[in-house]
Amino acid sequence: MSAQVETHTHTHTHTHSEDCDHDHDHSINANANASSETETETETEVVSEQDALKASRTPAKALLSVADLERWTTSDTRAAFVAFVSRLNDAAKNKKLRDDLFVSETTQRILDLLDACEAICADVRPSDSGKSRFGNVAFQQWFDKMQEIAFPLTNAIVPDALDAHEISIYLINSFGNRKRIDYGTGHEAHFIAFLFCIEKLGLIGEQDLPAIALKVFWRYIGVMRTLQFTYWLEPAGSHGVWGLDDYNFLPFMFGSAQFYDHKHMRPKCIHDPEILEEFSKDYMYLACIKFINSVKTASLRWHSPMLDDISGVKSWQKVNSGMQKMYLAEVLSKLPIMQHFLFGTFLPFEASGEMVGEEDELGHVHALGQERPACCFIRVPSAIAAAADQGVNVAREFGMRPGMVGGALGGARPRPLPFD
């Protein structure tokens, strides 16, 4: 009897213990679930906060009207941007592209970044566009791949993630418009903004500027030539040119600075084919003239009358001074260009109101006061594509070795020619 009672008591005690254990497990699970939910909510809040910070550091358009443009022309931000361009111009004076210049670790990383962007072209070949002389849609694939690597490449130069995010947006907008498959001086200005931000962080200084102007910027132009040859980017702007060669302006400014005190060659030397052939590897200006001659028929007088007129100026000092004034007037003070420019922490400017209007068929929202046809309504075919259509091997005419694209303009990687 005693044994039975003891057994019963033991059994009862064991069952009670199991119930307690079950209740304890249930409590632990409930607490774990609550903790997990709390952690998830916390993580969500952190992610939301990070997204908000990221959004607040994403550059945006701010020149929405003619009134905004007028405020921009007298703003401190424009003055700082112009001063940076001027310092780059001064840094290029009386120096050659192949001079042995100081290249810091940061400068080298920017060069590596440009190499990486150009290397994508090897994986994204142009699609068959038939006889079209307009932009090749494969550029959009290239753009997407470039956009994927823009942040990590920038973050390798700029340690702070939020700073790198903001600065990478300027880089992304340096290579042309994805939807319109075009490129112009506004995109060129975004690359200068990319460099401006890096300098503003103190990552490059005065000692770096010669290499930034003559190595980095020229390497960037080389990448752009690669993209132009490969994907036939259209010139941005309905007039065909806001730049001096359909695409760019600053190579002519910095290029004229290279000749600033040259004792022998005068501006009229651009008409001498032998000088172009011999010295285009050392001077941006001559390389750009050679590029124009290679993709356009007839004489410089017919297809580039402004450059032809400039060649009549007596000194390079006057050419350089005129280029700086022209850049201010024809690029940084033109609404069709500046309405696309992006502003943020490093380049602050407050818009007067919300962007008004709808995107047109080319993905373009026009600023208030900007007439549509004066901006980008009329598409302009690529002169490179036109030359290819006429049977001209532009890359060979431009002096590039077989299998090279961009080689004569700062490129250094082998590339299959986009056309034969």
UniProtKB/TrEMBL annotation:
Q: Which UniProt keywords apply?
A: Cytoplasm, Isomerase, Rotamase
Question: Known EC number(s)?
Answer: 5.2.1.8
Looking up CDD domains in the UniProt record yields: PTPA (cd04087)
Gene Ontology molecular function: peptidyl-prolyl cis-trans isomerase activity; protein tyrosine phosphatase activator activity
| This protein's record includes keyword Cytoplasm | yes
Q: What class of enzyme is it?
A: isomerase
Q: Which GO terms describe its cellular component?
A: cytoplasm; nucleus; protein phosphatase type 2A complex
Basic and acidic residues compositional bias: what residue ranges?
15-27
**What's its catalytic activity?**
[protein]-peptidylproline (omega=180) = [protein]-peptidylproline (omega=0)
* Compositionally biased region (Acidic residues): 38-48
Q: Where is this region: Disordered?
A: 1-53
Keyword Cytoplasm recorded: yes
So what family is this one in?
Belongs to the PTPA-type PPIase family.
What does this chain do? Answer: PPIases accelerate the folding of proteins. It catalyzes the cis-trans isomerization of proline imidic peptide bonds in oligopeptides.
What is the protein name given in its UniProt record? Answer: Serine/threonine-protein phosphatase 2A activator
Look up and give the organism this protein is from: Rhizoclosmatium globosum
